[in-house]
Each structure stands twice: as structure tokens, then as C-alpha cells.
Design goal:
By secondary structure, the chain is mainly alpha-helical. The protein has two helices and no strands. The N and C termini lie far apart (about 20 Å).
């Protein structure tokens, strides 16, 4: 759930980390 919500915002640490990974 967190990843989905964060991905939508595209401005969360989790998303940035995931993108980097």
C-alpha cells in the first residue's frame, strides 16, 4: 500500500529509494 500511494505522489522517500534501486 505504501509504495502505491507514494508512487502516486512521486515525492516520497520510499519512491526515491525504489527508483534508485
Amino acid at each position: 500500500m505504501s509504495l502505491g500511494e507514494n508512487n502516486s505522489n512521486g515525492m516520497q522517500e520510499e519512491v526515491a529509494d525504489d527508483s534508485d534501486d
